[in-house]
Each structure stands twice: as structure tokens, then as C-alpha cells.
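Hi team,

As requested, here is the filled-out complex form for the zinc ion run. I kept the field names the same as last time so the parser does not choke. Let me know if anything looks off before we queue the next batch.

— J.
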Amino acid sequence: MKVKFLGTGTSMGVPLIGCNCAVCKSKDFRDKRLRSSVLIENNGKTILIDASSDFRLQALIYRIKKIDAIFITHPHADHVFGLDDTRIFYLRQKKPMEVWGSEFTVENIRKLFFYAFEGKRDERLVKPSFNLNVIDRRIKLFGLHISPVNAIHGDMPVSGFRFNNFGYITDFNFIEDKEIKKFFGVRTLVVGALRYSPSISHLTIDRAIEFVNRIKPEIAYFTHFSHEIMHSKLEKELPENIKPAFDGLEIEVR
Ligand SMILES: [Zn+2]
Ligand SMILES: [Zn+2]
Ligand SMILES: [Zn+2]
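And here is what came back:
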């Protein structure tokens, strides 16, 4: 299974609009971060985790040709606003986009993209077409075992996902022990680690390291970074088994 990081930035992206800090001005391409999302390729199937607000750009940069399913972690703008841009795949593939998420996520996608669900379906209106699916237990899709993992993100429930031996969870500050256990045994884990300074809705770097130490994957990648994070500096500070991800990074998960 191949996993490509399409974006590794927090909700406002990096550089931040109008910011002159060292990271926002950095020449290191690893400090340029579109909004967070990954693309999974397995057995000829393409799965997107989150349709970020930068999805159109990401699809152009990484030449995404098709999407077979989309898993959404939660309905914050930076994770769902790209859904409208998946219309082109719906038009070419001639079937609705299969979108998966918790009941909470699916309900809110219905609200945010009300125009796709209301009124008549006339192809000349070029509305998005979504088939919304609730994932509340382990499912098998395209030969992969996929489990949702529940966590809390400030005042919002979020889902992490486990795809066979790959775990992905961003945007959370609290998770129950029984949910953490669902990640036990993953080889590769991706975790949102916003910044060094405290946050009431995200893990900081220190807390993300503690989280990885509980799950003990072979390797972990941090993502969803703010402009406090300079890639080259964080890379030196992290333990051997944890790496900062960057836009365009591609990894192979066994
Ligand atoms: Zn986010
Ligand atoms: Zn900045
Ligand atoms: Zn969020």
C-alpha cells in the first residue's frame, strides 16, 4: 500500500497569510504546507483521506487521475471543502463519489453541501454527487480492513482510521484507552501534532510523542503542522522512529 501526503499543514496552511516569521519565509520546500490530506493507493484502488480546502491544487500537483472512495475525519473546512472539487471525478467516472465518515461527519457534509442533496438532479446543473456512507465499525472495502477510531477535537467528535497496518489520526486532543487499542499492531502511524505551544483541540509535539509511545508502531509520521514547526529543526528533535511528514512525501506501508 502506498501513502502519499498531499498536505501536512494546519487549517490556515503554511505560510500563513501575511506572516513574516522564519518558517513562513523559509526556503525549505518542506516548510510549505497545504491543508492536511493523504492519498492511499492499493491494488489499483485510490482512497483519499479528507478532501482538503487545497484539494484542487493537490490533485493537479500530484496528477490524481481517479478516486474510488473518500474517508472524512471530521467536517471542519480544512478537511471537507475540497469535496466540491471531486465533481470532476464524478463526471468522468460516471458514478457518485463514495464518501465515508461518522454519522456526525456525514450529517454535517449534508448541511455544508446542501445544494448537492436538494432540488432536482439535472446533469446540466453540474452538482456534486455524493453517496454518503456511515462507518461505525470495521468494514472490508477493496480488500482492506478499515476501522474507525473515535477521538475528541475540542468540541467536536473526530474519526481516525485504520487501514490494515496503517493508522491515520489528526485533529484530536483526547482519546479513550479503548479507542487507542484499535491502533495496536499498526506498522505505520500518522498523527496530527500541531505545534510546541499548548492547544485545546490538538496534540502538541510532546503529547503526540507520548501517544506514539503507547501504540509503538515501527514508524510514525507527524502532520497537520502550524507555522511554529520548522521541518529541519523538528526532524533533529524527534526520536529515531518518528519523522515529520512533508507535502509530497510518499511512503510504502506493508
Ligand atoms: Zn484540521
Ligand atoms: Zn509564520
Ligand atoms: Zn479540525
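Two things worth flagging: Residues 205-215 form the longest helix (11 residues). The domain at 2-252 is CATH 3.60.15.10 (Metallo-beta-lactamase; Chain A).

Thanks,
J.
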